[in-house]
Amino acid sequence: MFPLRDTVRSRTFPVINYSLIAVNALIFLIEAALGPQGFINLLDILGLVPAKVSLAQPLNVVTLFTSMFLHGSWFHLISNMWTLYIFGDNVEDRMGSVRYLVFYLFAGVVSGLTHIVVTNTVYGIDSPLARIPTVGASGAIAGVLGAYFILYPRSRVITLVPIFILPWFVEIPAFIYLGFWFFSQLSSGLLSLGSYGVFGGIAWWAHIGGFMVGLLLVKVFSRRPRTYEYWYPDEYWPW
């Protein structure tokens, strides 16, 4: 399933959301300009390496922030930024720009810490997996998805579902779409625990940790309750 857009119109201009997208894209262009070896060296320095983040090496804590602005490929960047583009503007609208930025960064840090704890606990700090750099904004974006799940559960996500060679466009309620997304992350995360590796090359537990931040803290960061402009008569959510 590929999300195309949601049906909630933001009432304010999402300056922080667009800025995050622009910064991530600009940083990736810099990464690409470094060449293959320079790109690898940058990931080793600024990527999140679970074995390196500890009280014995406090300076490496900064990689909890830097890693969320790095991406491993064009597909990695575009898929993350497209998801942020669809869901982030509405969350910023409800939180306000400053709160949204703090929330986004906090979700990214907690998602990174979740990845560190699971990797070092399950596989060991001396394992090869604990020394692999992890990069990407997906943990922070997972926090945005968790917040959207609470704020706009009855909005719809226009989704492209390819059936063989035919495109099929479906309107899926957000709580179903995002609920299925979280279930897929949790299932894959549990499978990864028994496969001695990050199942499929993805830090599933970072996504899980970020999403939980969104679920649990969205009301802390949200401004006063209000309804939003809707496209369908049954989209109203009372708070």
Structural features, described:
- The protein has one domain: Rhomboid-like fold (Up-down Bundle), CATH 1.20.1540.
- The longest helix is centred in the middle third of the chain and has 26 residues, at 97-122.
- Strand 2 and strand 3 (166-173) form a beta hairpin.
- Residues 231-239 have low confidence and may be disordered.
- With 239 residues, it is mainly alpha-helical.
- It has helices spanning 15-33, 35-46, 63-66, 74-95, 97-122, 138-151, 174-193, 204-221; strands at residues 2-6, 156-163, 166-173.
- Strands 1-2-3 form a 3-stranded antiparallel sheet.
- It starts with a strand and ends in an 18-residue tail after the last helix.
- It is globular.
- Helix 1 (15-33) runs antiparallel to helix 4 and helix 7 packs across helix 8.
- The chain has 8 helices and 3 strands, in the order βααααααββαα.
Biggest sheet character: 3 strands, antiparallel
Which radius of gyration do the C-alpha atoms yield?
Answer: 18 Å
Give the number of helices. Answer: 8
What is the helical fraction, as a range of percent? 55-70%
State the CATH superfamily name: Rhomboid-like
CATH names the topology as Rhomboid-like fold
Which structural category fits the helices and strands? mainly alpha
Strand content range = 5-15%
